[in-house]
Design goal:
The chain has a four-stranded mixed β-sheet. 38% of the residues lie in helices and 19% in strands. Helix 2 packs parallel to helix 3. The protein is an alpha+beta fold and 119 residues long. It is globular, with a radius of gyration of 14 Å. It has a domain of 80 residues: 2-Layer Sandwich (Nucleotidyltransferase, domain 5).
Length: 119
């Protein structure tokens, strides 16, 4: 078996912990993906297998033209929180994938909390 990268090891550890915690009362998952230029967030209801809300820096009216900033990530966090709240979701679990919790990922998470999501 091939050796896993550090990113893949973190990703598996995070997903395993999320599955273990969900138990009998599964919450929707706020999933984050960060690329060099953009950041994407979506609230996924795994029990039904569909996306409840999604936002990214690719959306036309995200603040600023550069997608790779903490301000743009915070704007995405506020947007996804507003869309999820509108869909009736207030409690989620935060799935950061294999990404470290700092910088743009942290800015998105903090803005989503301010926007009304609990995690």
């Amino acid at each position: 078996m091939a050796k896993l990268s550090l990113f893949e090891r973190r990703r598996r550890r995070v997903r395993t912990a999320l599955k273990a915690r969900s138990g009998q009362n599964p919450r929707p998952r706020l999933s984050i993906h960060r690329s060099g230029r953009h950041i994407y967030a979506q609230v996924i209801d795994d029990s039904n297998g569909h996306t409840v809300a999604a936002a990214s820096t690719l959306d036309k009216d995200v603040r600023g033209k550069a997608g790779a900033t903490s301000e743009a990530a915070a704007d995405v966090g506020k947007r996804v929180a507003a869309l999820a709240t509108k869909a009736g979701v207030t409690q989620v679990v935060f799935d950061r994938g294999g990404f470290l919790f700092h910088g743009r990922v942290k800015a998105l998470a903090d803005a989503a909390r301010e926007g009304g999501l609990e995690f």
